[in-house]
Amino acid sequence: MKKFRALAVVLALPLALTACSHGGGANGGGSGSSAVIVANDTEPQNPLIPANTNEVGGGTILDLIYAGLYYYDKDGKPQLHMAESVDTKDSVNFTIKLKKDQKFSDGSPVTAASFVNAWNQAVKQQQLNASWFSIIKGYSEDKPTDLEGLKVVDDTTFTVELNTPTSDFPVRLGYSAFYPLPEAGIGDVEAVAAFGENPISNGPYIVKKDSWAHNEKIELVPNPEYKGPIAAKNGGITFKFYSSQDAAYNDLLSGQLDVLDAVPDSAFGTYEQELGDRAVNQPGAIFQSFTFPKSDTRFQGEAGQLRKQAISMAINREEITKTIFQGTRQPATDFVAPVIPGHSDSLAGADVLTYNPEKAKELWKQADAIEPWTGDVEIAYNSDGGHQAWVDATMNSIKNTLGIEAKGAPYADFKSLRKEITDRAITKAFRTGWQGDYPGISNFLEPIYMTGASANDGDYSNADFDALLKKAASQPSVEEANKLYIQAEESLLKDLPCIPLWYSNLTGGSAEGVKDVVFGWNTKPLLYNVTK
């Protein structure tokens, strides 16, 4: 029997992304375990329900207030969390045993039913992450019901039967979609949403009651019921929701913010000097792109395909990453961040990601011969994320190359942009990106481009691509799987469901006197470890 105890399959990352050091800081005082750490975040799109959160603002909070079967250490290796063991003979049937005496913050026990009920609810209510459960036997998008492949054996044991062998299934189980919920978190849609405003949780922190001031801040305090391996070493975490990255960086410099995970482009040329050894600039698990909505028929069919290729070749990624990002981004050569095993810089068809103005003009002309172009190109972006400079540069590159009108379309905040995208109300291209949920190439492909997947914001669908992903997931080793994932990526380069741009480095830092600041594999600081 295979034992998935410390590392289910070999997906270790080569980097531990670290930063050091701060004192003073916000919330005035405190030291060691009593100090409250202030960090930046964005307003979550939805109430804090694990399977109904697929954006970074809410995900950052969920990873601190909930505990899943696994967690990922700073190097991206899965480590047992609520699970005592995850066993399988065939990568189809899994037996999951929980550690005993684990509790939610209200004192109720974390049981096998806590996981099974939460997963079934995600599917039945078609929550945003419902497609993560599509590999489990009985999943149906048309008639969602309890999953046939989930069985509670006893309070600390449940079994999972998948549709096909999936060698990296245990590695996925650290992602927030698979977190448990207490009985209070199971109910109808309205009751679940209300629960998510003041959730009962089982992680190292809990949301301080009624502390979520929307669009302003949220306060987390240590969970006295938590007995896991990543217990809080501080007195709590306050997340401030910023309207701009510049404001967050200025607060860091003045000691009003303790830890920052995204330096604004206005400070790229100065922050390493200003922060010294407290600055961080390391490769990260982030891929950036923009996507045309399916409703924009100008980018559908043969003419649309040519136009997407032309636009991609009209973008001078090398120049933009040097001048705008000053070396904190790398031009994309595929759809997978370079720190992820399986990333490639030599895919067949990757020339579509290379700046080639003459070829771009030729392809645009071919598209016009099929269907004349009308209108302009816009990229929607959130103003609170520091995106204006690169959007303007990208639009100017397209405009100057193709001779068409191209411009940015700013939204006030990330939540507003995500709502239009999620509701399929957006009519223009929009910025997209992916921060790894687990350290595997499948995570950068399946949730984003598989038909009906949770983060498939462009509603891309290709049966051959889907089949390659399923075949890859059933391979006996990561190495064999990655060969098929590369084939899948090469098919994406033909279809361009999004326009790949670049990979983001982790650019962040800490204020003076803050100690033990370590940034993990996914570019997020391990805030439970931070003190001052």
How would you characterize the overall build of this protein?
- With 532 residues, the protein is of the alpha+beta class.
- The protein is 27% helix and 20% strand.
- It contains 14 helices and 20 strands.
- The chain has helices at residues 56-65, 112-124, 169-172, 189-197, 245-254, 271-275, 301-313, 317-323, 357-370, 388-402, 414-422, 446-449, 463-473, 478-495, and strands at residues 2-3, 17-18, 36-41, 70-72, 78-80, 83-88, 93-98, 150-154, 157-161, 205-207, 217-222, 236-241, 259-260, 279-291, 329-331, 377-382, 406-411, 429-435, 499-510, 518-519.
- It is globular.
- 55% of the residues are buried.
- Residues 1-31 have low confidence and may be disordered.
Provide the descriptors you would attach to this structure in a database record.
532 residues; seven-stranded mixed β-sheet; five-stranded antiparallel β-sheet; disordered N terminus
SSE layout and pairing:
Layout: E1 2-3, E2 17-18, E3 36-41, H1 56-65, E4 70-72, E5 78-80, E6 83-88, E7 93-98, H2 112-124, E8 150-154, E9 157-161, H3 169-172, H4 189-197, E10 205-207, E11 217-222, E12 236-241, H5 245-254, E13 259-260, H6 271-275, E14 279-291, H7 301-313, H8 317-323, E15 329-331, H9 357-370, E16 377-382, H10 388-402, E17 406-411, H11 414-422, E18 429-435, H12 446-449, H13 463-473, H14 478-495, E19 499-510, E20 518-519
Parallel strand pairs: 3-12, 16-17, 16-18
Antiparallel strand pairs: 1-6, 2-20, 4-5, 6-7, 7-9, 8-9, 10-11, 11-12, 13-19, 14-18, 14-19, 15-19
